[in-house]
Design goal:
The protein is of the alpha/beta class and about 210 residues long. The N and C termini lie far apart (about 50 Å). Helix 5 runs parallel beside helix 8 and helix 7 packs antiparallel against helix 8. The chain has eight helices and seven strands. Helix content is about 45%, strand content about 15%. It has two domains: about 110 residues, NAD(P)-binding Rossmann-like Domain (Rossmann fold); about 60 residues.
Length: about 210
């Protein structure tokens, strides 16, 4: 059974072995998380080559060899050679480095769920490698249910949260307030683009729950 968590990768060295489509996708998600990405492969896709030329990632034009994973925080084994992936995974474990091998889950310490990002809002779906197709289908469903406006709504909620903290006395009161305030009606307003109305209604709820001095 897997343990769900979100990991901070800002500035950490993450090594991706391989330069094909899988490696390209993994590099994309690592960059979104702010990781310092090193790709190790004799050749890479045009997209990865462009990122290397612009300095957005590092590219070592060579096949994997022992010692490549020094100073890595995690490694993605995405070559098309299963033996190479096994060698790299073995080195990673010797060094205490986290491993993900998309095509060989038995080598992996963790899996990367299907995800949808809306600003700082991150929604993920995992089927524990039992059905990647279902993960993709559910991710597409989330894409329809949670349009980009939810990223802006999250930023507004962050500001509203400070107001609620200042006006409501206890954590129990604040928890009860948010449970009532973020109801299906508010989520529907946001989902249909009526974010201003959603904010007005939440602000009215805050005013109605102000703690008297």
């Amino acid at each position: 059974m897997q343990y769900p968590m979100n990991m901070e990768l800002g500035g950490r060295r993450c090594v991706v072995l391989g330069g094909g489509p899988v490696a390209r996708r993994k590099v994309g998600t690592l960059r979104q998380a702010g990781a310092s990405v090193l790709v190790i492969a004799p050749s890479v896709s045009p997209e990865l080559e462009a990122l290397a030329e612009s300095g957005e990632i590092q590219w070592r034009r060579a096949p994997y060899e022992q010692g490549c994973l020094r100073d890595a925080f995690l490694v993605i084994c995405a070559t098309d050679d299963e033996a190479v992936n096994r060698q790299a995974a073995a080195e990673a474990r010797q060094r205490g480095v986290l491993v993900n091998a998309p095509a060989q889950p038995e080598l992996s310490d963790f899996s990367v769920p299907a995800s949808l990002r809306r600003g700082n809002l991150l929604l993920t779906v995992s089927t524990g490698n039992l059905s990647p197709a279902l993960s993709r289908a559910l991710r597409e469903h989330l894409d329809r249910e949670f349009p980009p406006m939810f990223g802006e709504w999250l930023e507004r909620l962050h500001l509203l949260r400070e107001e609620v903290r200042a006006r409501l006395g206890s954590s129990r009161e604040r928890e009860a307030f948010w449970r009532d305030a973020l109801n299906e009606h508010i989520l529907e307003l946001v989902g249909t683009g009526r974010i201003e109305q959603a904010e007005v209604e939440v602000r009215h709820a805050i005013d109605g729950n102000r703690t008297e001095p």
